[in-house]
Task: structure prediction
Amino acid sequence: MPQPRILFVIGSLRKGSFNQRLADVAAKHLDGRAEISTLDYRDLPQFDQGEEFPAPPSIADAREQVSQADAVWIFTPEYNYSYPGTLKNLLDWLSRPLDPTFQDKTTVLTGKKVALTSAAGKSAGAGVRGKLTEILDFLKSDLLGRQVGIVLPGEAFVTGEYEPSADDVKAVELQADELLDSIG
Result:
């Protein structure tokens, strides 16, 4: 029996991002139990309705990766109590119907199991997770009940370094287990 496929989406494009560290924790915990891949969306064009049919190749590829995944797991920072612009751009592209006549409003995110995790400042990413919940509910995604919000230590923003605590690791591992159970 094939392993479930989970597609990671990292909201920060910064090399060594704090949220990438959490994704690494999740990938290690799921090793041998799920096939993990990460969506590289740094080269997507800005959303332009005039360019969506036919979809540019990078968009078609991103949609295909989402379509082939059993679940999508978003790890994202919080920018101004909201989502990073690059992540919003990706979601705008993924939110569009695949049918150019718009008769079928199904998107690659419709019914897709999605998990949300955020490493951020004192809010623990509550703003970004709330706004993403609104978008994903609107798109009729199947949002995992457990969300994880991690409060980053202040020095992480000064040094650029973050080592997840034992509690942070445990929270991500529990979320990984719940996600795996929900798609298994």
Q: What stands out?
A: Strands lie at 5-10, 35-38, 71-75, 113-120, 142-143, 148-151. The mean pLDDT is 93. Residues 166-183 form the longest helix (18 residues).
